[in-house]
Automatic annotation (TrEMBL), chain B:
Signal peptide: none annotated. It comes from Planosporangium mesophilum. The lineage of its organism: Bacteria, Bacillati, Actinomycetota, Actinomycetes, Micromonosporales. SUPFAM superfamilies: alpha-helical ferredoxin (SSF46548), NagB/RpiA/CoA transferase-like (SSF100950). Residues 1-22, 60-83 are annotated as: Disordered. This is Iron-sulfur cluster-binding protein. PROSITE patterns: 4FE4S_FER_1 (PS00198). Residues 347-414 form the 4Fe-4S ferredoxin-type domain.
Amino acid sequence: MDNGRSETMPGTVALFVACVADLAYPGPPRACVEVLEAMGVSVELPAGQTCCGQPALNSGYPRQATTLARRWLATFARYDAVVTTSGSCLSTVHHAYPRLLHGAEREQAVALAARSWEFTQFVTDFGQGLTLRLDAEVTYHDSCHMLRTLGERSSPRELLSRIDGLTLVEMTDSGVCCGFGGTFAVKLPDVSVAMADHKLAQAGRTGARYLVSADPACLMHLQGRADVTRAGIRTRHIAELVSDALVRTEVRA
Amino acid sequence: MPDAAEVPTPESSPPTPPRRRSTALLGRERVVVTRPDWAAATIPAHRKPLPIITRAALDQPGTAATHTRLSGKNREQNDGGWPPEIAALRERGAEIRRETLRDLEGHLAALTAKAEANGVVVHRAATPDDAVGIITGIARANDVRLVVKSKSMATEEMHLNAHLEENGIEVVETDLGEYIVQVADERPSHIVGPALHKSKAEVGALFEELAAERLPQEAEDLAAFARTRLRADFHHADMGISGVNFAAADTGTLTLVTNEGNADMVTSQPRIHVAVMPMEKVIPRLRDLAVLVPLLCYAATKQKVTVYQTMLNGPRRDGEPDGPEQLHLVILDNGRSSIVEGRYREVLACIRCGNCQIACPVYRTVGGHAYGSVYGGPIGAVLTPLLANTKQGRDLPFLSSLCGACFDACPVKIPLPDMLVDLRADYEAATRGRPRRWLWRLWAKAWDSPRGYRLTMTAARLAGPLLPRAVLRRLPGPGRGWAAGRALPATRDAGAFRAWFTDRRPR
Ligand code: SF4
């Protein structure tokens, strides 16, 4: 691993839920807990966490974003490892916090970013022992911030390749934005929706049953559009897919 | 306005032979203008709001086909990233451009001194109007009636063609793409490929309208049609106007990079030449071209070198077979001397390759005209609000999903996404008294406390059943934009994860 993160699996991680998951997408963080526990990791849920602040920042309100950035750091600073099922929010910690904060706070942000994992990164790094099996054909959408800000293209694919019986059919333009874009989705809804249609069309062309991604926000937007246009494909967060694929070796109490 | 082309010269006109009018534009009056007002060559003074223009753009016939074409081009140009040798040029190019910007005035002074020593007349224009005044002044002083032009985005900033035409001077765009948009009375939709938004069939139909006859429709035929029409104009024009890609401060050499060779004709045939450059086009040294030209060509078209590089050092000297008698260089500011002093300085590193536009999914989806500005796409969304004469483009930074593709695509590594975010903050700070400012403050206050956050979850859970999609799409506010085209997120699940997590581990 040359990504600067720990090479030994942390025994305990703090889960960063992210606001979209809290508001409407309980599945991904729940699946994350299940998968991490299957790996023998103990998951804590720091109670003080809310949102990373990205919605405010990208809407032109950096001061409000900074307020939430400070809260985020204060909440997670005491943990050795942080895991999240929202790649985009983690990219905010990586890229936006050092721009918003200065001095000691910036250093704290950089240090904390270095011990934070997006879900697929964590499971790819440490989940080799998992037995995963699921008969499914899926296609994968790279969320923008995970792909371009975190530079993470391989972990989700590596993880999918570890699922027995699963076929990944790559779509054309997998790295092209789905059109969500935070408040862009409501400020310029027609453009946002047209971009979702392009994405759903490409995904549909693969013939895959599931459109998988690692960001709840993209999926919320894409599923919302697919519901209206009756696109055949269903969206699924990669954590949920991996949780579906878990072959448990112990009887669970 | 275009119908002046064929006015017969009255018998009583003075004995001088009648001046030739443009051949290339013959029949222009026959072309029925079908483009929407926001695609016009001259941008309307009161632009419609972005949601309206973009909606209209999405409804335009051809927009979907443009998206398909541009997506193919994007895959060709940007999938796979930068090959190692170009990546190395990219590092060096990015640094050369930043070096330039650290002392822009110094480099401009050196350029001016060198160019003047070479016999070039150098003009500085603070505003687009100043530049128009200078150029029309040169035209009038030299009794110019017909101008041939090669690509220049700086002249678009000043709507130069319209101003020259108002002064009775005919202007012919000689770059094929520019010629197409000129005939269609549009402005360029892309900074390198002005007519990228037009399919071959659309161009064919346009040329047939212009020619009032059937034309063979292969791409080469259409290009040949334009070339044939343009040939006579090169010969008869009194003045050439071109852009500049790079102006070397150490030698005063102006370099133009083109695919068609028209710049060679424009700069060498007419007796007067005016090169127009925005002030950031200066580069420190002529040898920097070895980095910047291949970088520009690769970023723009994935070619290693373009077909033509035209270099201008000065007017024709005694014994030289061609070249203009007068060579003028107009250096346009239009707010750039302020930009270079501020936090957005790096945007002036731009070498106008257009790759951020091709890489942008919003640009590909709505097309370049939908930005309602001279420059569209990510570079336009950043540059337009910063230029001095484009106040109405201040909201353009919001026309982006902040996906970051433009940054990866930029040959000189301009942090366009960060700039878009910062410009949004500038925009919000400048528009006082908006209720949304208070909403964001309230939001930050609420979400800076676990209790406030929990309350939001409860409110979301309760509001879900009360505000189904059918209702929400009729109410004002952000929910409407969402609900118009998408099912609502399952807010009945708000807070469900935390409840699940707590329940499974009773304390
Ligand atoms: S900003 Fe970068 S990518 Fe865009 S046109 Fe300028 S140089 Fe090219």
